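Next up, a specimen:

>
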Amino acid sequence: LFIVSMLMATTVFAEKVVGTYTMAETSKDIEAAFDNKGVLKVFIEVLGEYKNDKVMIKIDGEQDLNEFIAQLKYCKAKFIEWDKVAKANNVTDYTKKYDVTFPNIEVWWRGSEWFSTFKRNLFKPIFMVADDGKSSFGVGGKATDWDNEYIDQQWYLILMSSAEFDSLINALNPEKIKSALKQGENADALFQ
């Protein structure tokens, strides 16, 4: 168990910031790395329970990343459609689940050390219209550490406009991420 925990912890510290996106009008990081088998691991910074929490959702592999992007694009199209309907009909204080299935993810967060969940389907987004009529896309919940049921973290991903969707979708482009990782490898090769 100790060895598994150490291996999981070391994968988190090997990430490189490969981009940023805008969430709820604030800038958040996208980090990535290749694991020792060459599989792309992407970490998306999200909101935590407290302002200074370091919380990330992890997507494993390019196939899951592409599926995640495809589902985000679908949600963006529905967001635009539903936002127009809500505004045209003065809808307020409303929520509706998106009928989508995202790939399984893990949630990672920093406490006194790094904690994480098992990989599972934690990404179940909703469309929300606030009392003031502003629409948003949201997903989140309570993540419980895979090794200790008493350690948990609230996490949230909130996109408030089609521009914020575009910001995240563009930052998750697999080719851009791989290119940014290669640049780091090339720089490392200079200093042998």
The helical segments are 2-13, 62-88, 162-171, 174-190.
